[in-house]
Specification:
- This protein is α/β, with parallel strands linked by helices and 307 residues long.
- The chain has a domain of 179 residues: Rossmann fold (3-Layer(aba) Sandwich), CATH 3.40.50.
- The protein contains eight helices and twelve strands.
- The protein has a seven-stranded mixed β-sheet, sandwiched between helices.
- The longest helix has 25 residues.
- It is globular.
- The structure holds adenosine-5'-diphosphate (ADP) and magnesium ion.
- The site of magnesium ion (MG) has 4 residues, from helix 1.
- Magnesium ion binds next to helix 1.
């Protein structure tokens, strides 16, 4: 199986704050594979290590065990082949919205004229609804607007891999819907690969080809990669009428409210560390499952508790 982004027994531990204390192992033995052009999201409880995984892919954080690869290169540092949208925007505070986007566009296409850079940057700010605010500095923009500048900047450089860490959390529902649609439009017209963290199960179902489910930390792992077997193009208003929609949704909610913790407890209680390699040394990736109808039973209460 050819994966474009993949990890091999990836692990990350932070040293203890106490002298002589045990390291805090965020995740270990993580084997994740993302195919070229795939849209993969990752769901898991706060603190399980999602942002850390994304930062390793971005080349911003070093793993403490194993390795991660982009194509056949080991990921060691950031590069223009990857664009990142952070959970909290990361704009240059002394530059306007337009200049923030132009800065990235210039780095990506150094041969472009100033006019080309500006036209291209304005186009992407306009896509996220900021045409009238391009000259404002970050402190003159609301949190949601700043986040949209970060999204415009990431979309504008048309990177091969788009990494997004809960990018739409700060946006109102209407704006979120518009930008989700724009993201899908951009993604479906290119061979861009997307890895996105979200806490919103509906967003994950609407956007993803597969959803990685991470157990609670410490020693978090990817328990499953759920295939979203719903036809594209998807429409937020009609997707709920797809026969498989609620089975998939219930499966995700059940994971979040119950199984993510149970699986962590099971792991903590077992002596043997399960290293997911098969006899011939091939990596075994998490099973890909399509939730069946039966799993949708008895979960209404759990969903109500969660949502
Ligand atoms: N620089 C750091 N030093 C120590 N612990 C950290 C550091 N960064 C993250 N952590 C810890 O690693 C765990 C995973 O963090 P994170 O990847 O941000 O989780 P998530 O994105 O899933 O909420 C958390 O318990 C967090 O406290
Ligand atoms: Mg996070």
């Amino acid at each position: 199986m050819e994966y474009y982004v993949r990890t091999e027994l990836l692990g990350k531990a932070f040293p203890s704050e106490k002298k002589g204390g045990d390291d805090y192992v965020v995740f270990e033995d993580l084997n994740v594979g993302i195919r070229k052009g795939e849209f993969v999201t990752c769901i898991g409880h706060s603190g399980c290590g999602k942002s850390t995984v994304l930062n390793v892919f971005a080349g911003l954080e070093k793993a403490t065990a194993g390795a991660s690869f982009l194509g056949n290169r080991v990921i060691e540092s950031p590069g223009l082949d990857r664009a990142v949208v952070f959970q909290n925007h990361s704009l240059l505070p002394w530059r306007s919205a337009l200049k923030n986007v132009e800065f990235a566009v210039k780095a990506r296409w150094p041969q472009w004229s100033a006019a080309e850079v500006e036209t291209h940057s304005r186009k992407f700010l306009s896509l996220v609804g900021l045409d009238k605010s391009v000259d404002r500095k970050p402190y003159q923009l609301s949190g949601g607007m700043r986040q949209r500048v970060g999204i415009a900047r990431a979309f504008a450089i048309k990177s091969e891999l788009l990494l997004m860490d809960e990018p739409f959390g700060a946006l109102d529902a209407l704006t979120r819907g518009v930008i989700q649609d724009e993201l899908v439009r951009i993604w479906s017209h290119t061979d861009q690969t997307v890895f996105m963290i979200t806490h919103d199960v509906d967003e994950a179902i609407l956007l993803s080809d597969r959803i990685l489910l991470m157990t609670n930390g410490p020693r978090a792992r990817v328990a499953e990669a759920v295939v979203v077997d719903l036809p594209r193009p998807r429409n937020r208003a009609t997707i709920i009428h797809e026969p498989k929609y609620y089975a998939t949704r219930n499966h995700l909610v059940d994971f979040l409210v119950r199984r993510s913790q149970e699986l962590s407890d099971d792991q903590a209680g077992s002596d043997a560390r399960t290293v997911p390699t098969s006899v011939d040394g091939e990596l075994v990736y998490p099973p890909e499952i399509i939730p069946g109808e039966s799993e949708s039973a008895n979960l209404t209460a759990a969903m109500a508790a969660q949502c």
